[in-house]
Structures are given as structure tokens and as C-alpha cells.
Amino acid sequence: MMTRSMMKFFSPSSSSAIYTTLSSRLARINATRHTPPPPPKSSRAARSLTSFLLIRATMSSSSSSSDAVAAAAAATFEKPRTVVKKLLAESQPEGDGATVRRSIGRYELRNLDPFLMLDEFSVSKPAGFPDHPHRGFETVTYMLEGAFTHQDFAGHKGTIGTGDVQWMTAGRGIVHSEMPAADGVQKGLQLWINLSSKDKMIEPRYQELMSKDISCAEKDGVEVKIIAGEAFGVRSPVYTRTPTMYMDFTMQPGSQLHQPIPEAWNAFVYIIDGEGVFGREKASPATAHHCLVLGPGDGLSVWNKSGEPLRFALVGGQPLNEPVVQHGPFVMNTHAEIQQAMEDYYYGRNGFEKARHWSSTA
């Protein structure tokens, strides 16, 4: 996605013709086999990765049963993760007539290594995200409702519908469009995942996963679609170059979940629908459109104490611990690399050879 707010990153930083012309061009834009994460360094983390425990879904009315469940929950993780930051993603206009709710990537949370941006988008024809470039990271588009069509300058074209996922590695460079493929409102989540310095200039690639092919599991009132990573002993086939877990949980009223997360990873929750208690059983409930940044620990506990289903995405990733320099849709490690990316896009070289003579048919 290339959004209107990103266009400010292309303001000319010098009087050079390259930057002036490139800024003018960009202003006309209306708007990757699975490798498991590396083994944990401690036996405690190893137990976390292999112990996928779910405590019983309903609470007994007796105080002794409640105490037993609470004790079992407390024993699930040696270092439970709690919510250390809570952000409400408010609607804002983006792209060509689209609306997004941005959590990661805004002023209060510029990034959460290795994650660069998270948008919940809502788009209706003729709005969308016309032709725009990317370099240096991956985009993961997960459709919640409706369908989107993708085209790029290498000839790739496809449509993803409700529940489908496109995992795109931009690498050294891609120019593409993302536009609604159906009438009505199209909704989804788009996550940007950073690439390490050694991977930023790899060839672009795609992994498109239809909803029927996404790994799923269910137990005691909790359902999960496993886009990446492992839950309840079920693993996704998606390859994550930057080690990542991405799961879509739906919890029925009265259920609870205890999901391990690799201890060295950063993680967050984005609530899609409903209301839940995260981290500590006595914590205040969080509602839809909130992003919850999780503190350190080996797992997350969640309780649905409401009378309605709770749906949320749980995302975690191994930090890269590298400098992040972002200029709109280009994410590199140094300012010199950003300047090179802009020149490559302008001149049509080093991965952008087809950019000057291509436009989508959307």
C-alpha cells in the first residue's frame, strides 16, 4: 500500500532534478517452503515453544474450581506477557479514497522491530491503492471481507478473497497496484515486516494462501487460523524470511487461551471484533480496533469474559536489531541506501527496470 500520508516522505531534500522529478511523479500516484524459527537458547524457551496448553473453556461456579483454574493459568508461563502499551487505531483517509486504521507506523508507535506498519483497511470501488513502489521489506495482506486484485510490473496478477493471504517479499524492488475486486466494502489487515540487511536486495517473491489451505485448529471454545508459526501443535506452511508468527484467534464466551510466544520476540495483539482481557485476568478489557503491545515473557493469556465472540490477531517476530531508515515505501538501513533506492526507481535500474514503462490495468 502506498498511502497519501507516505507521500510526505518524498518531499525533495535537495534541489536536484532527480528528487524534484521523482517527487512530482510520486505525487501523481493516487495514493516468499517454511523454515521454523531458530531453536531457543534456553530450556525454558524450549518448553514454551512445545507446550501449547489450553485451560478448560468454562469456569466452575464453585470457589475451589475457580482457584484451581487460576492456579493452573498462573503456572502456564514462567514469565507471562502483559500489555505494556495500548493504542486505539482511529479511522483516517488514505490512498485513493480508502480508509485505514493505523496502529503500528504512527507517531506513537513508529515501529515494533521487525514490524513497520499495521493497517486495518476499508475500501470501496473506485477507491484503492494504484501503482506504487516498494523496496526492502515484506507486505502481508489478510482479507477479512471482500476481495482485492494485485498486479505488478513483473506480470504477476491475482485476486485474494475473504480469509485469503498474500505474503509479498518486495526485496530489491516491485511496483504494483492493490484494488478492490468486488462491489461493496472490502476490509483487511496489511502488515509490513522488515527484512534484514542481507535480504533487502533479494528478488521479489509471493506466497498466496487461500483460506481453505490455511492451517486451522480448535479446542475448548477457541479457534485459530495459523497464517504463520504454530498453535495447538499445528504449524503453518508459510515461509517467513524474518521469523514471524501470525494467528487469527476467535474465542467463544467463557473461553480462555494460553499461547506460547518465543521469549526473545516482540509481539502484539490487534483486536478485530469483541472484547477480551489480555495478559492478566484482572486487567481491564480491551475492545475492537485496539493494538496491544506485549511486554517480555514466554506466553500470552487471554480471557473472553463477555457474552460475544472475541476475534483478534496475535503477531510476533524476531527483532532484527538493525537501523531502520524509511522514506515512504522504501525501507533500508542507511540514508545513502534510501537515496540509492530513489535514484534506482527514477532511472529504472537495480530491480526497477520495468517501472518506467508499466502501468496496471486496474
Automatic annotation (TrEMBL):
Entry keyword Transcription regulation: no
The keyword Nucleus is assigned to this record: yes
Major site of localization recorded for this protein: nucleus
Subcellular localization, as worded in the UniProt entry: Nucleus
Pirin C-terminal domain residues: 246-351
SUPFAM superfamilies: RmlC-like cupins
Family: Belongs to the pirin family.
Protein name (database record): Pirin-like protein
Origin species: Oryza nivara
